[in-house]
Structure formats: C-alpha cells, structure tokens
Write a structure and sequence with these properties.
The chain has helices at about 5-10, 15-30, 40-55, 65-85, 100-110, 145-150, 175-190, 200-205, 215-225; strands at about 35-40, 55-60, 115-120, 135, 165. The protein has about 240 residues and is of the alpha/beta class.
C-alpha cells in the first residue's frame, strides 16, 4: 500500500476524524487558539464541517480559489482569532464543562475561530502569534516540515504562556509508526515534553526515554505496577 493510499484511509476514517474534532472542541473550550493542519483539501473541508456542527467557527484555508481569495480568508481568520485572543478569549485557562454549564461552554467555544488549513497553503507570510495549539491531522515525516509547522506556535505573544502540539499516532501501520518516531526526535530537540495522562502515568509519559536509559525506567515501571503489566514491542525484522 502506498503512502497516498494510507493517507486516503486516514482522512476518511470516521472514528479518527471524530477523535480529532473532540480534541479540538475540548481545547477550544479550555481557551486554546487552534490551528488544524492536513495534507488534503477534502479532509480540511470534512473537519471544518464537523467543527461547525460542534458549534465552533472554522476558517478553511486551502489551495482552492484565486490567490486574492485565499489571502482574504487568511486575513479574516487571522484578524478574528487575533482580536478575540487579545480581548481575553484565549486567557481562560480552564472552562467548566460540567453538565450544568454545557450550554455556556458551547456558546463560549462558538465565539473563538478555528483555522483549518492544508499544509501547503500556509506559507512564510502566515503569522499569528496568538496560536497556542497545533493539531497535526495527517502524519508528517520530514523533519523540516515538522519544525516549520510547530514553529507557528513559537511566535511570542503576551496572552500565552505555553503551547501544545496534538500528534495523532497511527502505530498500527509500520510506516507511520516509523514516521512518528522521527517526529519524536524533532519534538525533543525543540524542547517539548510528552503530556502525561493520569497522575499515575505522568512519570513514565512525561519525558523522552533515551536508548541508554530505558532499562532503568522499565524496571521502575514494573515495580510500581499494582497488579499486572502488559508489554508491547515490535517484532524484530
């Protein structure tokens, strides 16, 4: 199966797209200024439709239309997000998403735009310092592209103190698993840490493990297991 065929399957996966949309909605409700990037125009349209149905305000930026039209959309999206973030929308570090405040949360999320774009359409001229979260909706292998995409979050802004990259790991496909491992090295070189899950998982998930130090961490994890352990490892080629 070629990479393009694999990419088609990923972009058409209802479960995968639903996961991305759920994560975006959750991030926006928590006050993030979000950029979603994909390799496919159709995927951008699909995600934008889902985000709109979820109550958000997506701006689609693809290679369709004239250059002037694309520049207009980029300008509108940048202006809308920048204005809202500077007005304090992105400073809410947390939003109550309990059932009692569900309607308020949706209304708050709908006020913040989300930019959904193809990778090739956001050139060097795109600059939005308020961005705090990047969603990589399709896999990236080349380190230079990873650095360029993640670098969009590194513009300084007085309204943000941290940034987050959402990377979707399709480890069931060996080709994509190898691609993810290459991205991990880039993230580590840029100073990123892997976000932990629960408090119990934080120690093992919050850092990159070098090959020379894996055994010590492995033994620590085994000793801290409450009842049982499961070990997943690729078969030797």
């Amino acid at each position: 199966m070629t990479f393009n065929q694999v990419l088609d399957l990923l972009c058409e996966s209802d479960a995968r797209n639903a996961l991305i949309v759920d994560d975006v909605v959750r991030a926006v409700r928590a006050g993030a200024a979000v950029l979603v990037m994909s390799k496919r125009r159709k995927h951008v349209r699909d995600l934008a439709e889902r985000l709109k149905a979820a109550g958000l305000m997506p701006y689609e930026i693809t290679g369709e239309g004239t250059q002037k039209e694309r520049q207009r959309v980029v300008g509108e999206a940048s202006h809308a997000m920048g204005a809202l973030c500077r007005g304090g929308a992105s400073e809410a570090s947390a939003v109550d998403v309990s059932p009692e405040s569900e309607s308020e949360s949706k209304e708050s999320a709908a006020q913040l735009p989300v930019i959904v774009a193809t990778e090739s359409c956001l050139g060097e001229g795109f600059d939005l310092p308020e961005l705090t979260a990047l969603f990589m909706a399709t896999p990236v292998s080349y380190s230079g592209v990873v650095i360029q995409q993640v670098g969009r979050l590194h513009r300084t802004s007085p309204v943000k103190t941290s940034v987050t990259v959402y990377d979707y790991v399709d480890i069931s496909i060996p080709q994509l698993e190898r691609s993810y491992k290459r991205r991990l090295k880039v993230y580590a070189s840029m100073g990123y840490e892997i976000a932990g899950g629960s408090e119990e998982q934080a120690d093992s998930r919050g850092s990159f493990i070098e090959a020379s130090a894996w055994s010590e961490r492995f033994i620590q994890d085994i000793r801290s297991a409450a009842r049982s352990i499961e070990i997943f490892a690729p078969l030797p080629m």
